[in-house]
Amino acid sequence: MRPLEGAREPVYCLAYSRDSHWLAAGGAWETMRLWDLSTGVLERFTAKSRCVYSHPVSAVAFSPDGSELAWGCGQTAYLCDLVASHPRLVLDRHRGSVSCLAFSGDGQLLLASTRSNCNEAGAGAVHCWDVVTGSWRPDIWAAWDRRFQEQTLARGIWSLALSPDGTKLALILTRERLSLFDWPVGTSRLTVDDPGLWMVAFSPEGSLLATVANGTRVNVRDLSAPLPRYHDAHTRQATSISFSPGGTILASGSIDGTVILWDVSAWRERARYDWGIGPVHAVAFAPDGMTLAVGGDKGVVLCDIDGL
């Protein structure tokens, strides 16, 4: 385990570039931090919120080709070329705070989910942006079921995940409903009500859907099976999940400060860590499968997982 220099405040979101060369982190500051992992050099992109009050950087995502990075701060999303020092696009037509970001498989669209500025229900929508022109694409969301749009607006979206093949979109509404749709047409495939839903993630092959819910529980659902598997191992709220690139390990982080690595094939605990960074808010596997990044109240650490 090694800590990364330059982030001592709480870290809420993490993302690796596809080549595992860059690691981006957002948290309780108005700056998105970017590390060159080959040298350990820290880069900073400042993203001042346009709201009166300070907002954390709540979401980060790399484009599929790794050339651009998007991050959300308050009601604004930013898009930056990695070789530039300032954002190329400032996307600020969101009706609520940006909660999650994801690029379409071809890298042409940026999806931004939103929720209320006050961490309450409301202001929910999926905003779609053309990353070439920076134009808003309201036609995609407008084509979805009107009743669902109204429910989303009332509830807010807490988590968003696009399947690896780009054909399915999973959403969590107001921490209590998981909805799965065909993307981009919006055909509903699954709706599950479960209290305390926090985050959703697809496995690399897209057949498994993991969520953290109901406090300490980690749920894993095979999309071809009727019922999920439940893992209740953390002592406080589970906050984050990430599948390894091969899909054999699932990492879960918790407010209790621990990170658990789960053996996906046997559905048993493989290892448990506490690196002393306080409550854990984000976990992310490197695409090359060599490291796991963990963000907590006291910064970011990298754990070597090769051979585990």
Any overview of this molecule?
By secondary structure, this protein is mainly beta. The chain has a domain of 115 residues: YVTN repeat-like/Quinoprotein amine dehydrogenase (Methylamine Dehydrogenase, Chain H), CATH 2.130.10. Helices cover 5% and strands 49% of the residues. The protein contains two helices and 27 strands. The strands form seven sheets. A four-stranded antiparallel beta sheet has the order 1-27-26-25, with no helix packed on it. The protein is globular, with a radius of gyration of 18 Å.
Summarize the structure in short:
The protein is 5% helix and 49% strand. It has 2 helices and 27 strands. The protein is globular.
Name the descriptors.
four-stranded antiparallel beta sheet, 27 strands, 308 residues, globular, mainly beta, 5% helix, Methylamine Dehydrogenase, Chain H
Mean pLDDT: 88
- Decide which structural class fits the backbone: mainly beta
| Low-confidence runs of at least 5 consecutive residues | 49-53
Helix fraction by DSSP (H/I, runs of at least 4): under 10%
Write the CATH homologous superfamily of the domain at 194-308: YVTN repeat-like/Quinoprotein amine dehydrogenase
Query: In CATH terms, what is the architecture of the domain at 194-308?
Result: 7 Propeller
> Main sheet, how many strands, which sense, barrel?
4 strands, antiparallel
| Broad shape | globular
> Can you list the strand order of the major beta sheet?
1-27-26-25
Q: From N to C, what is the helix and strand string?
A: EEEEEEEEEEEEHHEEEEEEEEEEEEEEE
Alpha plus pi helix count: 2
SS strand fraction: over 45%
**CATH fold-level topology of the domain at 194-308:** Methylamine Dehydrogenase, Chain H
| Cα-atom radius of gyration | 18 Å
Distance between the termini: 14 Å
* Annotation, overall tally of beta strands: 27
Which class of the domain at 194-308 in CATH terms? Mainly Beta
